[in-house]
Amino acid sequence: MQILWIDENFEKKLLKVNDETAFERPIDSMHSVAEIVSHLTEWRKEVFSRLKGNPIGLEMSGAANWRSNEELKQMGWKNLLNAKLLVMPDQVIFK
């Protein structure tokens, strides 16, 4: 049986991740799904903020750039996923 990629996207894949697997690291030196989602969310927010004309807010060395699994576990997978899904481009108003 061939699995088609049609109708698959990032958000559908993330909805299949649960509290248990979100924080697992397949290899110690790799990031968890939760860490990657947090990182992408922070940079997405930063890009939209800059497009609005705001100054640099997120730094490469900043704590929000790569939050630890421990910090993200306290936030909870569902909250992290909801935060990611709430950052939409239609919220950007260009100056």
What is the count of structural domains? 1
Q: Which structural category do the helix and sheet elements fall into?
A: mainly alpha
Radius of gyration: 15 Å
Considering DSSP H and I runs of 4 or more, what fraction of the residues is helical?
A: 40-55%
Report the major sheet.
none
Amount of beta strand: under 5%
**What is the N-to-C order of secondary-structure elements (H for helix, E for strand)?**
HHHHH
Query: How many DSSP-defined strands?
Result: 0
Q: End-to-end distance, in Å?
A: 51 Å
Q: What is the subunit organization of this protein?
A: single chain
- Nearest-integer average pLDDT: 84
As residue ranges, the low-confidence spans are: none
Number of helices: 5
Shape category = globular
Protein name: DinB-like domain-containing protein
Could you characterize the architecture of this molecule?
With 95 residues, the protein is mainly alpha-helical. It has one domain (18-91). The protein contains five helices and no strands. The radius of gyration is 15 Å and the shape is globular. The protein starts with 9 loop residues before the first helix and ends in a 9-residue tail after the last helix. The mean pLDDT is 84. This is DinB-like domain-containing protein.
Characteristics:
95 residues; mainly alpha; 5 helices; 0% strand; DinB-like domain-containing protein; DinB/YfiT-like
Structure summary:
Helices cover 48% and strands 0% of the residues.
